[in-house]
């Protein structure tokens, strides 16, 4: 069962992971890539646990795979590795 | 008024003979367990290196970092630091507890660890924040992250008493006021700031939380997209994301449980309530203890009875054991009983070993965590603290216990 339903605008673009992310209760992040979204995938998984969320978005917003900006409003500060 | 924390501080300062143990377990891949290893632990780990740094009387556990407060108001942090939440002046993880140097000249009296941000309150009533600021949750009027604690200037002429950091928002409680005493800032889409009857996406400057006029608030809590406050007469107010099937609340509303409450602990989908009688109730959490597998028993089937809709009573065990403290992780829960050994019990989601029961199973009802005793004669007092997917216990041995037991 999906842990939660999350709107794409509430997810954060993570430059390092090249994915949209949302906090997972285990402490890690649910992740989904632009390519996933382009092909209509709506499940964002956490690499550390069995939980997943359902991402709510308009598939049309991700159809254009050229360099069109699809990042959400708030840029994620880049973490120094 | 003397707070519980001040009393604890005095007690600890007066007694140098006191021994303390610090235990941790659960998700550990960001160094949040302070074991020096980057791995999960399914059983309680005794942390000798942390104990060696001196007594600790309060912990706050966030998404994957921990803030520890010493009796003298010194602050140590460790765990995930990639958003600057450790306050060490850099954006890196720390496997070992390290003092927050930027706060060394202040006596810190209250701390809170959110998902990826941190808040610190000094004895003189100033508040400092650091970490992820993308949603305005640091309160500085901008959306930048900070790797060293910076004073929130909005409160510079006010006396801050407490801070509570949630997933992407923060709450502040001022001292003394009867009105305008709670403020919110950061992400507000689920109503968790309580600053408007209409939903506010976010604010990077603190705003007054509505609906708490003529109520003296003594405690605030935040976790996930939830917010809560307890009044001096033991009434509970909640706002933000609704529990269970309840809808979101944009301003605080009184939760009528017809009981006087002593503590509230918020998870991401549940709240634990501790009554002054030592009973525990849970709000929401319909999947608590059944997250990993849908086929497992849901809590409602095991709980002894439903009070009001969505509120269940939690039984510590079969006897009339009283509960003295509660804590909530994102999806797990913990309590401390007042039996002679001050037992710690856990239940909820266990996939990362956050229940400390030696496995990764979920538990629908509280189970005793086995913590070895250093001394059979001495009387331990346990305090439990939960982060998103991990847990800590501070266990202090009271040197007066033999006398006490003799009476
Ligand atoms: Zn996870």
Automatic annotation (TrEMBL), chain A:
This protein's UniProt keywords: Iron, Metal-binding
Domain of life the protein comes from: Eukaryota
InterPro entries hit by this protein: DPH3/4-like, DPH_MB_dom, DPH_MB_sf
Chemical reaction(s) catalysed: 2 [3Fe-4S](0)-[protein] + 2 Fe(2+)-[Dph3] + NADH = 2 [4Fe-4S](1+)-[protein] + 2 [Dph3] + NAD(+) + H(+); [3Fe-4S](1+)-[protein] + Fe(2+)-[Dph3] = [3Fe-4S](0)-[protein] + Fe(3+)-[Dph3]
GO MF: metal ion binding
Annotated DPH-type MB domain residues: 2-58
GO cellular component: cytosol
GO terms under biological process: protein histidyl modification to diphthamide
PANTHER family associated with the record: DIPHTHAMIDE BIOSYNTHESIS PROTEIN 3, DPH3 HOMOLOG-RELATED
Family, similarity comment: Belongs to the DPH3 family.
Name assigned to this protein: Diphthamide biosynthesis protein 3
UniProtKB/TrEMBL annotation, chain B:
Entry keyword set: Receptor, Repeat
InterPro entries recorded: RCC1-like_dom, RCC1/BLIP-II, Reg_chr_condens, Ub-ligase/GTPase-reg
Domain RCC1-like: 22-393
Source organism: Sesamum indicum
Keyword Cell membrane assigned: no
A GO CC term assigned to this protein in UniProt: cytoplasm
Extent of the RCC repeats: 20-72, 73-124, 125-176, 180-233, 234-277, 278-339, 342-397
Domain of life the protein comes from: Eukaryota
Name of the protein described by the UniProt record: Ultraviolet-B receptor UVR8
A Pfam family this chain is assigned to: WD40_RLD
């Amino acid at each position: 069962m999906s842990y939660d339903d999350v709107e794409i605008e509430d997810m954060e673009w993570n430059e390092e992971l090249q994915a949209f992310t949302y906090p997972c209760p285990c402490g890690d992040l649910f992740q989904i890539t632009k390519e996933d979204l382009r092909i209509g995938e709506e499940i964002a998984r956490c690499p550390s646990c069995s939980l997943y969320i359902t991402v709510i978005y308009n598939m049309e917003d991700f159809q254009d795979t050229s360099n069109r900006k699809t990042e959400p409003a708030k840029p994620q500060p880049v973490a120094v590795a | 008024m003397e707070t519980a924390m001040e009393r604890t501080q005095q007690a600890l300062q007066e007694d140098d003979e006191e021994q303390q143990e610090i235990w941790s377990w659960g998700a550990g891949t960001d160094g949040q367990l302070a074991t020096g290893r980057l791995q999960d632990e399914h059983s309680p780990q005794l942390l000798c290196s942390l104990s060696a740094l001196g007594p600790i009387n309060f912990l706050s556990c966030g998404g994957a970092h921990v803030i520890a407060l010493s009796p003298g108001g010194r602050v140590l942090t460790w765990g995930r630091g990639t958003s600057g939440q450790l306050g060490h002046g850099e954006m890196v993880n720390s496997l070992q507890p390290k003092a927050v140097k930027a706060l060394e000249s202040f006596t810190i009296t209250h701390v809170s660890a959110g998902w990826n941000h941190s808040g610190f309150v000094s004895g003189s009533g100033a508040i400092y924040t650091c970490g992820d600021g993308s949603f305005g949750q640091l309160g500085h009027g901008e959306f930048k992250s900070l790797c060293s604690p910076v004073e929130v200037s909005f409160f510079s002429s006010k006396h801050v008493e407490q801070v509570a950091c949630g997933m992407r928002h923060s709450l502040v409680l001022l001292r003394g006021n009867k009105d305008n005493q709670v403020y919110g800032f950061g992400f507000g889409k689920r109503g968790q700031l309580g600053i408007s009857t209409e939903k506010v996406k976010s604010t990077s400057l603190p705003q007054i939380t509505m609906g708490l006029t003529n109520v003296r608030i003594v405690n605030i809590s935040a976790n996930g997209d939830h917010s809560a406050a307890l009044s001096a007469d033991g009434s509970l107010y909640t706002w933000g994301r609704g529990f269970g099937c309840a809808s979101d609340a944009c301003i605080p509303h009184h939760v009528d449980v017809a009981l006087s409450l002593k503590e509230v602990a918020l998870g991401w989908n549940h709240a634990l309530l501790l009554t002054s009688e030592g009973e525990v109730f849970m709000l929401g959490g319909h999947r608590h203890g059944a997250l990993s597998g849908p086929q497992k028993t849901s809590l409602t089937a095991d709980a002894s009875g439903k009070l009001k809709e969505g509120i269940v009573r939690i039984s510590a065990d079969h006897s009339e054991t009283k509960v003295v403290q509660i804590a909530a992780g994102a999806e797990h829960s913990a309590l401390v009983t007042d039996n002679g050994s001050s037992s710690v019990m856990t239940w909820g989601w266990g996939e990362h070993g956050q229940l400390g029961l030696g496995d990764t199973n979920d538990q629908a009802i509280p189970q005793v965590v086995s913590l070895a005793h250093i001394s059979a004669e001495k009387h331990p007092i346990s305090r439990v603290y939960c982060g998103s997917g991990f847990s800590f216990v501070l266990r202090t041995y009271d040197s007066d216990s033999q006398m006490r037991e003799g009476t």
